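Annotated sample (chain length 131).
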Amino acid sequence: MCVLHSPARFVRVRLLLGRFPHKEVDHDQQQRNGKRLGPLSVYEQGYLAEMGRLGYAKNTISGHRALMRRLSRWLDGQGLEAAGLTVEVAESFLLALRDSHSRWQPTLRTLSPLLGYLRKSGPRRLWWLRS
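Output written by the structure step:
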């Protein structure tokens, strides 16, 4: 199969063009490998496509995917939806991550591409991210 016409490329192009609207997802039912995905999972594919469009390296995108999934599960554990993600909540997440003695110690700057994407494409209630 030609790479230009592969199904994965078609999906990425459709995501970049905004042809796949975000769906409301029942997070209690949605799981991957036995782990709950959390409230940010509906934005994952669009966010990763945007990072690719902006020219981020594959390894960087992979790291941001892992961080987004971890943040999403943490939000779910705190009982928060995507609209509940504020700068203060993000800082609490980062503190919790540092307290877990993770080898990778991301900062608020590390989350800035995600917060920027959510400002443009996330839930309408993320007004605090809009400038």
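Annotation: Residues 1-30 have pLDDT under 50 and may be disordered.
Annotation: Residues 58-77 form the longest helix (20 residues).
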